[in-house]
Amino acid sequence: MASDPILQEIITLDEQYYLNCFGTRMPLCVDHGEGVWVFGTDGKRYLDMIGGLAVNVLGHAHPRLVQAITSQAAKVIHCSNYYYNEPQTRLAKRLAALTGMDRVFIGNSGAEANEAAIKLARGYFHKKGQPRVQIVSALMSFHGRTLATATATGQPKYSAPFAPLPAGFVHVPYNDLDALRAAVNDKTGAVMLELIQGESGVRPADPAFVRFAEQLCRETGARLIIDEIQTGMGRTGHFLASQFYGVQPDIITLAKGLAGGVPIGAVLASEDTASGFTPGDHVSTFGGNPLACAAALAVLDEYEASGLVAAAAERGEQLAAALRGLMAQLPEVIGEVRGAGLMIGLELVKPIAVAVKAGMMAKGYLVGSVGASVIRLLPPLILPESLIAAFTKDLEKTIQEVSL
Ligand SMILES: Cc1ncc(COP(=O)(O)O)c(C=O)c1O
Question: Based on the number of CB atoms within 10 Å of its own CB, is 167 exposed (0-12), middle (13-18) or buried (19 or more)?
Fold first, then answer.
């Protein structure tokens, strides 16, 4: 750190000027990236195993994405939604085809997509003259940080400091069928779930819980919202985790990797559910802008050209197998390897996740940590197999060093 004067200056300025929002940040000022590599202002190279938190699906400076962004920027970056723009409509068509949904709205972030999903579900019932406002979500979920999505998030630390909170949100323990049955009734507007809870430590839903949620929604008419903001875009080895769970949502939300790093979010809905919005109900100045949509189209082109969803499945299996091998070697330190595709959580038996993250950074790897004992990996979908062995070896060394 001492050898990086830019980092020193940025830390000092950040402490003075930036809102105090981030807690402890790692001592790295990102300068640029190339493929799966990130370079700091210190000139050091890091293997990006966190992918901007599931955003940099094509890695960094991917030629197809750079080309699409630069050529769209040279044409038109933004235009009002008073007018049509080609990338917005073409992206909607493409997402509908990929997901089997009928209607698409493009926004700017994950939280906004979930906010729109909640509005859409409530709007659907209001338009039928039915006051079904309750949104049932899971404890330990994460759905965003706007007031409604922070309230839907089943972790009071994200919402309680900002009370009063919007009404009509109910939480049930994840994977608890009885609690779900007790919570969902003819007042329920929607059940909102992640299929793998990402922010709380890569915790997959039980298939029986997901099937039961779908069944309850069908029985009561409640809308089923699946938040695919982290699990979508091929991350789990399927374009959507819903496809892997065999569930048919009424509303799906996407964001993160959709435009490879350009801010974007999307709400996808069945034709029937889409009637929840009528003109003027939901718009956004930047939502569906040509730049973000052109970037997303380029990402989807690259997925098709390079078979990246299948690559995520294959690479994820290789990485998980290597980590399970490490777990067999170090059973007193690694308790579980979980997740799907390239969304992997490593449960450590000891509270050493932050130390492992720091130790891995010193060795040239960016990994995430959740709480005291989970290491989270969300690498770009272009991760080559050839880097897995060295990563695992260095993880082993780091774990041994920090557990001494
Ligand atoms: C499952 C899930 N939903 C919603 C969000 C919020 O997305 P954003 O940070 O783009 O608002 C996140 C972000 O981590 C997420 O993982």
Answer: exposed
Q: Which atom of ligand 1 is nearest to the CA of 114?
A: 4
Q: Is the CB of 172 under 6 A from ligand 1?
A: no
Common-topology check for domains 5-61+307-402 and 76-306: no
Which of 53, 135, 140, 143 has most ligand 1 atoms within 8 Å of CB, for mutation?
143
Domain residue limits, the chain: 5-61+307-402, 76-306
- Do residues 234 and 312 lie in contact, with contact meaning Cβ atoms separated by under 8 Å? yes
**Has 209 been annotated as catalytic?**
no
- Tell me the two tokens of residue 89: 């409509």
Task: Return the residue whose CA atom lies nearest to atom 3 of ligand 1.
Answer: 143
Residue among 118, 155, 256 to mutate when testing ligand 1 (max atoms within 8 A of CB):
256
pLDDT tens, the chain, 404 aa long: 458 999 999 999 999 999 999 988 999 999 999 999 999 999 999 999 999 999 999 999 999 999 999 999 999 999 999 999 999 999 999 999 999 999 999 999 999 999 999 999 999 999 999 999 999 999 999 999 999 999 999 999 999 999 999 999 999 999 999 999 999 999 999 999 999 999 999 999 999 999 999 999 999 999 999 999 999 999 999 999 999 999 999 999 999 999 999 999 999 999 999 999 999 999 999 999 999 999 999 999 999 999 999 999 999 999 999 999 999 999 999 999 999 999 999 999 999 999 999 999 999 999 999 999 999 999 999 999 999 999 999 999 999 999 87
Q: Which residue has the tokens 């960016």?
A: 366
In angstroms, rounded to a whole number, what is the distance separating the alpha carbons of residues 334 and 40? 30
Task: Report the greatest alpha carbon distance in the chain.
Answer: 65
Contacts with 236 (C-beta within 8 Å, 6 or more apart), sequence order: 195, 196, 244, 312, 313, 316, 339, 340, 341, 342, 343
Task: Return the CATH fold of 76-306.
Answer: Aspartate Aminotransferase; domain 2 (3.40.640)
The answer to whether the pTM exceeds 0.85 is: yes
Instruction: Please identify, in words, the CATH class of the domain defined by 5-61+307-402.
Output: alpha beta
Our measurement of the distance from residue 323's CA atom to the centroid of its chain's CA atoms, rounded to an integer in Å, reads 22
Tell which residue, 77, 18, 70, has the closest CA to residue 298: 70
142 lines ligand 1 (CB under 6 A): yes
Return d(Cα 91, Cα 139) in angstroms, integer.
33
- Tell me which residue of 96, 197, 180, 89 sits closest to 143, measured CA to CA: 197
